[in-house]
Amino acid sequence: MAEQRKATHQQTRALNEGLVLRTLYDHAPISRADVARRTGLTRTTVSDVVADFIADGLAREIGRGPSSGGKAPILVDVVGDARLVIGLDLGEQQFVGALVNLRGEVRHVVAAPVIGRDGADRLATLQRLVDDLRELGRERVLGIGVGTPGLVDTERGTIRWAVNLEWQDLPLAAVLRERTNLPTYVANDARAVALGEYLFQRSDAGGNLVAIKVGLGIGAGIILDGEPFAGDGLGAGEIGHTTVAESGAPCRCGRYGCLETVASSRAILRAATAAALERPSSSLGRRLAHEGGLTIADIEASVRDGDDAARSVVADAARPLGEAIAGIIGVLNIHRVVLLGSVTELGEAWLSVVRAEATRRAFPLLAEDTEIEIGHQNDNVVVLGAVALLLTRELGLAPKR
Amino acid sequence: MAEQRKATHQQTRALNEGLVLRTLYDHAPISRADVARRTGLTRTTVSDVVADFIADGLAREIGRGPSSGGKAPILVDVVGDARLVIGLDLGEQQFVGALVNLRGEVRHVVAAPVIGRDGADRLATLQRLVDDLRELGRERVLGIGVGTPGLVDTERGTIRWAVNLEWQDLPLAAVLRERTNLPTYVANDARAVALGEYLFQRSDAGGNLVAIKVGLGIGAGIILDGEPFAGDGLGAGEIGHTTVAESGAPCRCGRYGCLETVASSRAILRAATAAALERPSSSLGRRLAHEGGLTIADIEASVRDGDDAARSVVADAARPLGEAIAGIIGVLNIHRVVLLGSVTELGEAWLSVVRAEATRRAFPLLAEDTEIEIGHQNDNVVVLGAVALLLTRELGLAPKR
């Protein structure tokens, strides 16, 4: 019984710490009194917790705020770099690892190519990345978050199937935890991206969010009531291989006309290259000749140059994505849809067509309240998502409702 | 403090009652000892609760079960008719009301046509239906559940917008509660249908379910972790007005090519009538000539007669629904999809095409574990869903996880 009371006391303490940290995180610099007001905890409890945070280097006092009559209160701020998280993005072409602080600021990035490697080789590469980052961050490292394509069982930390990485039933969290002795969490990349967008981009849009990662692959991460939704088979949001084009092009999944065959970065670059070769004197054609290959940024620049072929490549890729989003709006009626990933570099020309097509095809009553935006973090979305995963699980930084 | 303890005690009591009732409901006839085992409650608590149920006429002893060594245990069963629920289906052509017992068995049905009536007239009709059913059920009536098309705020009991009923911002639950002094709950019809299917059709498929009502309108009810999901704007599952056909037929929503223009009962009957007029000597043609109009059952019969035109009408309606389901599978990866409503009377010929198209267009990894079935309750799906709503809210009959 004494044991149980003790456990309960420790749990309460941990809950209170999470609550205070979350409040500092959202509202710092903030006075202890305001923390107490916002959390409903007593001032004594808040002062105790804050004292511990300051002792641990997690928080610090930064002087006095404006007085509201009496003595001006001392403001407390989070020390962002007090703790670092190792975030990993297991892309199919390269693995990217980073040290990220508690504010989601990237402090150090390393990358390793993995094209053509087999599953065992890829795992060895991942372990080296983790070792390097661990070495750099030392005792400030709080834990590891991993975003990976495929079907991921986040609860068990297991990758059920990641076809592009040649991993099947890999208990990745356990493998990394054993190696580093650090808390480790693994999630599907699109789901991680959604969580990152949800945690780091403050929004008052409520607890639901659809984040769609549009890059080499296309996947949606669905946040329901603050938590990533995985579905019954861990595959919720795997919209990239839904057929959208009758008699469409072959997909690497072995079928035809999947969304990825028309809307992914690979599909866009292929279409743009074909258009450039057809019209060597166009803006796209000149860029191809000059650089020997095209990037998403080249296509965007050519659209700005007024290149009709580039504009049409962009629109052809945007329309089927808009159609997929119309479907998502009808099914979920979630008001906030955020687009992330390399294809979003196409910018306004692309976004406006995605929006128009989604609006045209969705029930107007639902579409009118839905905001479709390009997300803010474009370089390291999966890394930040993986970090968000660790922070929500380990620090009680439950995303806001 | 004493007040608070008392409230807590009452809450515990209510929770325990719900738990015991749910267990009786799922496993009766069952012994008190087995209820205790399944609920984790003490035998004394279970006996107390069961004694109250028996005193209230909610449960009864039905003799002894098989002995497992010692004295054969007394089995307890639920008295289905001890309580009745008024379930209401506010269809756009008629309002149907019913008295339904705790097992979901319909005891009495009344209906009133509402075609051509205005909003005030429809509300008066509804109130008369409720009065009649109240009169019939008397003190056994536990409460009222309402399933209605449109955007419904179940928490507030308000119909935000039901265009076909000409109701806007109608606090229907409050109106009926005031009139009857009975607990009243209102939900979107498709969401109610999903809850009914979830509660009354036992299944071990876990906490998630997609139920699609395919009738005059088409809407999906999505159950996530045992609860209907409404989305940010109360419109989750409103898939009937998502565009599926480029340059499609005009829809009553004012747009073109919505799913309802090709897959609803109205669309199917229109297409079948056209086919019948074109080929008067076909099975469809003869049925039309003989009966002066076609029903869904006629079309199904003509398919069984081997009428190619009927088969093609059915397939043309099934394919876009399959496409919509493929989209839902990609977004939610929920393994159980149940089809309900009048169109399901088309049976196997329709279902097989829906399944084939959904499977063809969905990511195989997700589709292979998804079961698409026709639901069991076909006549009164909305009524039963409305009853399920009341039961889950009022009796703690939380659907099984």
Structure commentary:
The structure is a homodimer of 401-residue chains. With 401 residues, chain A is α/β, with parallel strands linked by helices. Chain A has 14 helices and 16 strands. In chain A, helix 1 crosses helix 2 (32-39). The radius of gyration of chain A is 23 Å and the shape is globular. The two termini of chain A are 35 Å apart. The relative contact order of chain A is 0.12. Chains A and B meet through strand 13, helix 11 and helix 13 of A and strand 13, helix 11 and helix 13 of B.
> What are the segments of chain A in which pLDDT stays under 50 over at least 5 consecutive residues?
1-5
User: How many E-type strands of chain A?
Assistant: 16
β-strand percent of chain A reads 15-25%
Count of helical regions of chain A: 14
Helix content of chain A: 40-55%
Oligomer: homodimer
- The outline of chain A comes out as globular
C-alpha Rg of chain A (nearest Å): 23 Å
Major β-sheet strand ordering of chain A: 6-5-4-7-11
> In terms of structural class, how would the helical and strand content of chain A be classed?
alpha/beta
Largest sheet of chain A: 5 strands, mixed
Measured distance between first and last alpha carbons of chain A: 35 Å
The succession of helices and strands of chain A, N to C, reads: HEHHEEEEEHEEEEHEHEEEHHHHHEHHEH
The most extensive interface, with participating residues per chain, is:
A-B, 46 and 46 residues
